[in-house]
């Protein structure tokens, strides 16, 4: 009863705590924060110097005393204290209360702490789940509920998950690829693959190192992937200039690379993802498989934006494939949706409760 009362006063939030980016949605108001999951800290004092976009600009450019880190790897917390600091920053940014004094010396009362719903990879361990929940509660949440990312993505994409029909969702994020077949509000088959956008970036780094003796950083690799990356041949192939360090001389070097070369570099990881999708389809009951053949596979996440990926998956699986509307936000929109429908939250949460 009291939790419902406080819920009317607080800004309850949904969080897509991603390896690459963190998105925060405020109930009834929409997405309020989209920032990189990066924190800059002082190595000796461990003082947090910057979080989000400001910290990402420091990647690869910090002096010896400062370190810019990504506190999540493969979708799970690798640095608890830094993750807690990042969550506290985002929660306080949403939930800060004006401190303007009123006449008579009174101040506006602080808002109650928020309820928080966090999307997590389906393959995390119980210890990893507890780490996420503890980080959110310590960062200032009144209650923290966890739901699996493929379920959140399916809800955010508007799939009829509570119907007695098969729905297939593939969420290709930064740290994990989540694959699920959903029916009657639950996952019939679910698979979490720790191969996703980060591995695609690493593929580009390795390709340029082996073929051209050129060393580039993660940020440059990500930019190349976004600019000319593809999974299928393009009508008009693209080229871009890449700058890095020549491994033989140690001096700066520039080369021109094509989208065909980057496609070759990415194909190993893309084939791993497609193989995992095919394995899930093989395990799917025939009745649900028939539904998926009619409805198609929905892909979401940043990886779904790679040119021609939907076409490549469709060719290999013999299934229709669709990219969700605004695929970068489906998980956080799903978290926001369950905040407004507590009955649905009770069905799909994997754990959670009051502090």
Describe the model:
With 355 residues, the protein is of the alpha+beta class. The chain has three domains: 2-37 and 74-97 and 112-151 and 331-354, Nucleotidyltransferase, domain 5; 164-195 and 270-326, 2-Layer Sandwich (Nucleotidyltransferase, domain 5); 197-265, Actin, Chain A, domain 4 (Alpha-Beta Complex), CATH 3.90.640. It contains twelve helices and 19 strands. The strands form five sheets. A six-stranded mixed sheet has the order 3-2-1-9-10-19, sandwiched between helices. It has a five-stranded mixed sheet with strand order 13-12-11-17-18, sandwiched between helices. Helix 3 (80-95) crosses helix 4, helix 6 (197-212) packs across helix 7 (218-228) and helix 6 (197-212) packs antiparallel against helix 8. The chain starts with a helix and ends with a strand. Residues 5-9 and 97-109 have low confidence and may be disordered.
List keywords for this structure.
single chain, 355 residues, alpha+beta, Nucleotidyltransferase, domain 5, Actin, Chain A, domain 4, 3 domains, 6-stranded mixed sheet, 5-stranded mixed sheet, 12 helices, flat
